[in-house]
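Supplementary Text 2. Reproducibility record for the structural model of the 368-residue chain.

All settings were left at their defaults, and a single model was retained for analysis rather than an ensemble. We include the record here because the model underlies the residue-level annotations in Supplementary Table 4.
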Amino acid sequence: MADIQGSYDDLFLAVPNALAAFLDEGDAGGSAAVFVNGEAVVDVWGGFADAGRCTPWQRDTIVNVFSVTKTMTALSALVLADRGELDLDAPVARYWPEFAAAGKEKVLVRHLLSHTAGLPDYDGPVAELYDWPAVTARLAALAPQWEPGTAAGYHSLTQGYLVGEVVRRITGRTPGTFFAEEVAGPLGADFRIGVGPEDDHRVALAVPPPSYDEDYTASAQNADPEPGTATALRVRDANSTAWRRAEIPAANGYGNARSVALVQSAMACSGTVGGVRLLSPAGCERAWEEQFDGEDRTLGMQMRWGLGYGLFGTTYGWGGWGGSLVMVDPAARMAVAYVTQQMREPADDQRGLEIVSAAYEGLQGLLT
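Retained model, structure tokens:
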């Protein structure tokens, strides 16, 4: 069995065992964490941080968690709403006047958070993703693909810029700066949106699935990238220095399982973790407010969307391209996170769910 580092409550042995199994199956590396009542009952890692398997995964190794980043951006918006600085029922144009162009004057802030705004696609070049003014100007000029609020289509790249620009207009800070100063900083969480050169040495770059190279794309069918289409993101793009230096609040958050679970423990624990109050219990409950239940046009599957999170029975959370995942269970006051740089084909990837299932095994022992 693969060697696993870190610590865990013996009741939660199934979690490190699951992580070890992934490594035994060929994964390069990864980390898993479970927080209950805001305290870590599992904080483990193992494997290697590089594709060549020369550098061991360390306690402070961080990875791009891709769309798990959306939960951090959503939390930032919920914090502002809880403070009364953001009205979720207000038109986006109240905060971002240019956004009212092309028939978007009735798009509400809650539509951005729930993937119902009608702006799921981004048609600019990949390089433009690193230019915040260019991206937001392009999005402000777009016409919605459906009447906002009447349908959902996963806004894989656009959601972060849309919500992030609202955050920027309200606070005068980029979404990454707001998150660092108002969420990660107070909690002491090692998570950031975009990374500077000082962190490059501890970033585990994405490793494509077996039999693929760095041209592997983020499209559902792994289709060849269309010329000039930003949404056909390749692994080589996500591993680039330009990607790391940018702020892409839907997709370029960097952290480990410990930091992801710590931040989202705020949502599991009624807004307060380790004596730090991020938002009120009522503010947390907003994430649960169902905004859509039906077939998601982009994902092609049944989805329930809350405010910034996918809703799954009595839990909520979201996963990212490549396999990282976070799950929040407010009734159990539990947050579970799994992060990895080792991609697998989405149809064959159940790793995050296996970590969640293993966490519930431990929880049952904790409650008996």
